[in-house]
């Protein structure tokens, strides 16, 4: 994509490939993947189930090593996870032996924040995701959507400058999702974070992103386009906005094409 | 790792193999306060089970004196040419052969040769390989012109009476060669009877032999001469006491020593003690030579030392 | 938002402690039943000279209690066991956490550890005596050596099972090796550690007792040996009873630890 | 729909077996290093009468090999160990799976099991002799008794950890107790079973050897005893070497089982 | 609700309550819940995250025992799980040591179906959920959405007459979701199954259900109404159907009310 790494590029991926070894054959999860993400952008990623979205995020986060190609963060190659990057993984990774409160505190503990400030900050975040009263519950005592929200709070506690989110709101009801989307947008607007947001919901992709990337099999980029719908975007109004409807159609078509 | 004694002056640690009858004089000297009177304190008194462990403890400096059988002393002398004898505790071979109550081959009153031949092809329980109990069987079989390794099956039962008697009672072995008072215990429990007893003079040529001994190394004798001498004096007094005191007193002391033993087994013991424990701690050349001869015949110890080498001059008695 | 709705539970004493009470009364019942059956059938079914019977054992315990033999010897063994257990468990847990996290290294060392572990300690008794003497430290080390391997191997197995996702979560938060160990590996392999501890308790006892059999004039091992040498079966069993009680108490302690560490786990009340 | 895309991997011999080869060569290197250090420092640092040295041990092994002592005795011990291990492991695993699934029952029995487990088997040698004789069966049972508890306790701990959700899944499919056991509990507590097996291997050996120390005239335990009585330290160590080799072989077998049972697990290659 | 249990009632719930015990207080997850589900109906359930939907399904399936009240299935009280009921739980319960194929076969194994038939039936179902080629993969080698589809195939393998589904399609892309929705509807239309379908997606609730139930906190029923949109319903067409839009508004309002 961009030939020179400008100061604005946060993540640059080129020729990325990832194979998993199974029974002496290689399963290709991602092939020749290129992507450049600019500082402060909100990129939503759509794609079929199994097309390599989570694999891509794992690579961006430095959790796994690519089979080929490189990932660089602010110009430097990514060799392992970095504190500046927060990653909300698709599957639940709350510590089952820690209460909600303790789970949200964890990144702060690791960063060495004093106990008093930790407690306050965690309480605030728990409130933001609507879980006050459940501080002392263990993850197994929560509903699926509640666990997801705790994970979100935990990620935010690390105060990352780049957010990778893998279907964060899929398990939440419409209203709560709306509230948290708004919260996320507020955060983003205020703090200038960079967000890469994987979702299955085309509407959500359009509602949040200022750029949407649609992936086909093994991470082939089927569509990569900016979304210039005016902000703030309201779901109810958007639904009847002709531009939105056109975009929706376009993405649906791209997804369908990606399936082939 | 050649460490010398770790005990403070005036104290001796005495390791013994077990609480068998042979070490009764030690107990008596302690009970009667002879050690204190002679000016030595006994520190640790570990029971070590085997001669190898006594030797290890001696070498590590954990104990100053070891109480065991002649075999252990000779073995020590073999690996350490400074091994020395300190006291003669028992001058008889205090291992008995016991057979089950229903043993068919021969009766205890038959001639020795017939009794030995009756053991042919039998399973005989011993305490362990290389022990004095195995040696006795080897010796007896050799006397009758047989070979214990091929003409019998020797089974190691360890050195606790309970296991040995269990095996005999359960019919797992036909006979036991074991330390005294196995015969008395077997009789008291109705499990078996004494069959061959060298200590009772059953075996010609093995009537008197130094068997229960205290030993150490020349290094300790040099380092703690006063303490060792005091120890020897106290033991001598204890051995004289055993011969002179009245039977009731001996029984009382034995009862304390062998806690938990069947009282029926106790009554025969005072007489036995008096016949086996010498009145002095010295080693006569004849007893010593019998022991050496016995070890040579049975092949228990390679490279046997001489009388002059391991019996210190003060302990060389000339009694026949 | 989702306000939490709670109700006060008004549970009776029975509601709260009924389960525990039932378990303990069943246990007591079982003990009594076993003792009665043993006492009644001792002479008929078993050979009493080798199995003794509860009343004789009790007599011996009372006797030992009166002349002080019981307590002085028990105290010594308890000390050895506790020190040996703590030492072995601490060393085993530490080594387990560290080695199992360094996988390749562990893989190379594994056969050596197993070979060391497989050596019957009794066979090394002379070496132990030469190196560590015949005092308490030798018995403590013998107990610790046995405990070490059991705890180590169980912890190592637990560490291997740690969920990769949780480790990754800590790495994403910028946690280093130490954080991973403390925040994930240790809590997550608690079951392994606790199983190791539970499995090792008896071996702390057995180790100490073996040490006392090797070289001692005190302690429960000495008592057993002495009683066996005098063919005093009641004495042997009396000592075994004391050993079992010590084991049961230590087991209770580990059980409490387990309960504390497992508070977050589902109760599994329903089946 | 999502078609699967694969590529053929053209990995060299080194790519496939390089890891294993490295591990084995490191192990061999370590053995050699240990032996050399031991041999060179034997006389200076240790007391050779109690620690022997590799060349002496090797001489003794060769000698025993030539006169047949080695193989006849090893064969006997191997038989005892293998039978004891199989018997104890089977009984332990079975009891573990069954008892741990009946939670309340297990809770009541737990202290009794621990009490039995804590009894030093050596102390029961007379009873074992009376009941089971001095033949091979006694040693097999002694080995099995030790193995039993280790496998049992590890399996029981594994069963306790089984994911409730998986059990519920089988219940939803109409599965009964048997299905739950076979389809969920057994595969899911495989780690516990394998740890139990691994931990128990040395005890199968130690059990058999202790049995041979107590009542035998054959086997490696007898050899140790014999050598020790003659102050033949090289002989003791030679026997220990043989024991370690047997343990290592059994460990290899359990390792293979482990690898088979863990095929579904992530490799955790990256860290 | 209905006073007499007609032959058409499959599940009848009355006065159902569920409390979880935590630190000596009771956490109410469901209180005084009543519901009657008729044979052959397709009931969609909407509700806020944490309002008790999964708890309710667990009780219907007989996985947990209620603190108060009763659940009856065809007039008989439910004491434990029943073979006629299939339940796709919210969280993943695939056996990690079984391959995809073996996982889907599991219910057939338990039912004692011969190996040959098992293999065929499983292969067919794996095809239906779009996972051919992945038969020999283990669950950890699949993406989140793929795991979800395996669970679905496994549930269908049991051939249940009543289906309880807890957010089955939440983790799937729009197109795949559409396909599987269609598949589910076909199954339902052909076989006369009864379906209770929990979802967070109002559109999905309207697209599938012929009755929608909206739950508020602790399972209070905020709205329970039949959906009589004509079938087959097409997502794209519906979105501009005035009746649909009205229903969407109604449900959104109900959800919002339930939040209070
Ligand atoms: N550990 C693994 N071993 C083998 N194959 C794997 C592994 N992890 C992922 N894959 C394969 O990689 C492909 C992409 O998986 P990925 O998780 O990235 O998909 P995804 O786009 O996140 O899908 P979803 O939307 O369902 O979460 C899938 O085909 C999957 O089977
Ligand atoms: N084991 C438990 N212990 C304590 N509380 C529990 C337990 N399980 C569930 N809860 C509580 O019950 C309530 C309802 O949970 P449930 O899982 O039914 O919610 P849900 O409606 O399925 O939510 P979601 O849409 O997020 O899945 C929640 O407040 C939760 O905290
Ligand atoms: Mg994914
Ligand atoms: Mg739920």
From TrEMBL, chains A, E:
Residues 11-242 form the ABC transporter domain. Signal peptide: none annotated. InterPro entries: AAA+_ATPase, ABC_transporter-like_ATP-bd, ABC_transporter-like_CS, ABC_transporter_ATP-bind, P-loop_NTPase. It comes from the Bacteria. The keyword Lipoprotein does not apply. Keywords: ATP-binding, Nucleotide-binding, Transport. PROSITE patterns: ABC_TRANSPORTER_1, ABC_TRANSPORTER_2. The keyword Transport applies. GO terms for molecular function: ATP binding; ATP hydrolysis activity. PANTHER family: ALIPHATIC SULFONATES IMPORT ATP-BINDING PROTEIN SSUB, TAURINE IMPORT ATP-BINDING PROTEIN-RELATED. This is NitT/TauT family transport system ATP-binding protein.
Automatic annotation (TrEMBL), chains C, D:
Residues 70-258 form the ABC transmembrane type-1 domain. Gene3D superfamilies: MetI-like (1.10.3720.10). One of its GO terms (biological process) is transmembrane transport. It is a multi-pass membrane protein. Keywords: Cell membrane, Membrane, Transmembrane, Transmembrane helix, Transport. InterPro entries: MetI-like (IPR000515), MetI-like_sf (IPR035906). The keyword Transmembrane helix applies. It is found in: Cell membrane. Its main location: membrane. PROSITE patterns: ABC_TM1 (PS50928). The chain crosses the membrane at residues 21-38, 81-100, 112-134, 140-159, 180-206, 236-257. GO terms for cellular component: plasma membrane. Belongs to the binding-protein-dependent transport system permease family. This is NitT/TauT family transport system permease protein. It comes from Nonomuraea fuscirosea.
